[in-house]
Amino acid sequence: MINQVYRLVSPRQFEVTYQDFSLKSDMIVVRPTHLSICNADQRYYTGSRGKEAMAKKLPMALIHEGIGKVVYDPKGEFANGTKVVMVPNDPTEEDSFIAENYLRSSRFRSSGYDGFMQDYIFLKRDRLVEIPEDMNPFVAAFTELITIAMHSITRFESRSHKRRNTFGVWGDGNLGFIMSLILKKKYPESKVISFGKTQYKLDRFSFVDETYLIDDIPESVKIDHAFECVGGLGSQYAINQSIDLIVPEGSISILGVSEYPVEVNTRMVLEKGITMIGSSRSGRADFQNTVNLYKEYPDIVDYFSTLIGEVQTVTSIQSIIEAFEKDLTSSWGKTIMEWKI
Ligand SMILES: NC(=O)C1=CN([C@@H]2O[C@H](COP(=O)(O)OP(=O)(O)OC[C@H]3O[C@@H](n4cnc5c(N)ncnc54)[C@H](OP(=O)(O)O)[C@@H]3O)[C@@H](O)[C@H]2O)C=CC1
Ligand SMILES: O=C(CO)[C@H](O)[C@H](O)COP(=O)(O)O
Ligand SMILES: [Zn+2]
């Protein structure tokens, strides 16, 4: 069959390409229905990813957050119409110690390998996970971002000490919201403190114990473990502030992506014996755990719906551009594309 792939060819410019795909393969065919824009996609769309990376990775279909419906399963295990979330990481080998998303041989969609902006996606059997039939599709669309927080919490649990009285989450955007909410659900007895730059954003974190603007933190505030969900240059300030507030031997999980290296107060990392945990992307197990989380705490999906920002119906390349432009000027939440192209 002929598939249409919508690729970014240069900043703010998309082109359609046609790919022939044989239905005789073992791949499951999924029709995307709701796609969600990640900051990483925006760095390619705007060209801020840097000349070298742009030259190396483009042309490429963007988007690694999305859901769809199964339209063809050669083994018939998934009924046609089954709603699924698609896993963007594609491992080519297994390792007993290194998770699939850290293997240098793995391919990741919309980072050097075509993402979900296509008419149909051809997926290996373990690259999709069924989602609850009645789940809000606009929330399900950004499940991948939720798996990022789930994955980092799994890493945190196996690498940090067990005193978890107080968590500090830096970032008053999407990932900070998701991280704060999951921590509060998983550790109801622990205090969760969210740190941000903007009061009206922090006002939406109604479920946490305390929120602080980063330039107005009382001296008494101390945390056992920190999660940095900021990225860019702001991550430098966030990491160093968390180093200042952390109780010795705590852990700092770093999730924000920075285009340039940031300066970290290593002297205090050493003096306090801090464990720094880097966390990037996620794998199939994190998707399954996230779908289980939706089932265990159905109210969490309602909280996540606070993050639905702009919604754009996509029927043409022009409407793809409109979605990305809207996302750039939106001050809160995720931009979701209803994929009807
Ligand atoms: N590790 C991974 O696998 C993944 C990482 N990411 C990365 O995580 C980061 C966050 O993503 P997302 O939440 O969607 O982005 P957002 O832009 O929605 O959130 C970042 C928020 O942090 C705020 N901020 C800036 N500086 C500080 C500071 N010093 N302390 C506290 N808050 C601050 C920003 O405010 P303002 O806008 O006013 O500056 C913004 O509200 C990005 O870098 C993204 O690329 C995303 C997905 C996966
Ligand atoms: O968003 C992400 C995962 O959800 C990662 O930040 C993204 O994969 C980083 O990719 P790149 O190196 O292409 O910026
Ligand atoms: Zn992403």
Automatic annotation (TrEMBL):
SUPFAM superfamilies: GroES-like, NAD(P)-binding Rossmann-fold domains. Residues 221-294 form the Alcohol dehydrogenase-like C-terminal domain. Zn(2+) binds at residues 38, 64-65, 144. Keywords: Cell wall biogenesis/degradation, Metal-binding, NADP, Oxidoreductase, Teichoic acid biosynthesis, Zinc. It is an enzyme of class 1 (oxidoreductase). InterPro entries: ADH-like_C (IPR013149), ADH-like_N (IPR013154), GroES-like_sf (IPR011032), NAD(P)-bd_dom_sf (IPR036291), TarJ (IPR034710). Its cofactor is Zn(2+). It catalyses: D-ribitol 5-phosphate + NADP(+) = D-ribulose 5-phosphate + NADPH + H(+). Residues 26-133 form the Alcohol dehydrogenase-like N-terminal domain. Its EC number is 1.1.1.405. The keyword Cell wall biogenesis/degradation applies. Pathway: Cell wall biogenesis; poly(ribitol phosphate) teichoic acid biosynthesis. Belongs to the zinc-containing alcohol dehydrogenase family. Catalyzes the NADPH dependent reduction of D-ribulose 5-phosphate to D-ribitol 5-phosphate. This is Ribulose-5-phosphate reductase.
